[in-house]
From TrEMBL:
Record protein name field: 5-formyltetrahydrofolate cyclo-ligase
Family of this protein: Belongs to the 5-formyltetrahydrofolate cyclo-ligase family.
Taxonomic lineage of the native organism: Bacteria, Pseudomonadati, Pseudomonadota, Alphaproteobacteria, Hyphomicrobiales
Cofactor dependence: Mg(2+)
Enzyme Commission number(s) from the entry: 6.3.3.2
Main enzyme class: ligase
One Pfam family per UniProt: 5-FTHF_cyc-lig
Length: 194
């Protein structure tokens, strides 16, 4: 048998980068094509799955995200984390090609517009999350994440002093066979798709 059997062909990076760009557009289009009321139901189901997976959140810091472009809306779950004695946090882009910083967020906190007009907490010291919930654009069979192409999550995970539990969240339509993982890509620990 071919000793390479089972290993995938790895195209050169410029080709992969072009492919990822096209794949992002396709996957975001599919996500937005899911009717809003179905997405709302999916968001509730994802929150339940996160509770089953993560368990007691008291005393733990969980980073989420402010949803846009059809991402699951986990803001009600963020409020429930806060209500159970956990700390919810949101990512903040400080600069391109730099790691994200996380700031604690409680419902009602003042927000300001960050990159792409995504709201971010206007004030507060950085926190280090125990759990990072990352929205998927795509996810592959080995739990490598395709995001929006900024490389922010990979850079952030590489920069944290202790590795958090990383959970990707999204819809079943976002599964793909491979993202052609590169040395900078860090696989997620868990994936919750509905
Ligand atoms: N809701 C939500 N908030 C989030 C994220 C997310 O995925 N979802 N992020 C997760 O990381 C961070 C923002 N991610 C971003 C990723 C890329 C670009 C960006 O400017 N992209 C370039 C294309 C890059 C390329 O293809 O080379 C662009 O649009 O011009 C901006 C923000 C933080 N906040
Ligand atoms: N730890 C890192 N150090 C240096 N460069 C990095 C690192 N992680 C990612 N990059 C660079 O960031 C760029 C985008 O990476 P990639 O295609 O993996 O983004 P993504 O995971 O889809 O985006 P995001 O995490 O923002 O949602 C690539 O050019 C990559 O080389």
């Amino acid at each position: 048998m071919d000793h390479d059997a089972g290993r995938q062909h790895m195209p050169p990076w410029p080709e992969i980068a072009r492919w990822r760009k096209a794949e992002r557009e396709r996957l975001i289009g599919e996500r937005l094509a899911i009717p809003a009321d179905r997405r709302a139901g999916f968001s509730v189901a994802i929150a339940q799955r996160l509770d089953a997976l993560i368990g007691d959140v008291a005393g733990r810091t969980v980073s989420l995200y402010w949803p846009f472009r059809g991402e699951p809306d986990l803001r009600p779950w963020a409020a429930s984390v806060t209500g159970r004695g956990g700390v919810a946090a949101l990512p903040v882009v400080i600069a391109k090609a730099q790691p994200l910083v996380f700031r604690a967020y409680r419902p009602g906190d003042r927000l300001e517009k960050g990159v792409w007009n995504i709201p971010v907490p206007a004030e507060g010291d950085p926190v280090i999350p125990d759990v990072v919930v990352a929205p998927l654009v795509g996810v592959d069979d080995r739990r490598f994440r395709l995001g929006y192409g900024g490389g922010f999550f990979d850079r952030t995970l590489a920069s944290l002093p202790t590795k958090p539990l990383v959970v990707g969240v999204g819809y079943a339509s976002q599964h793909i066979a491979t993202i052609y993982p590169q040395p900078h890509d860090i696989p997620m620990d868990e994936v919750v798709t509905v």
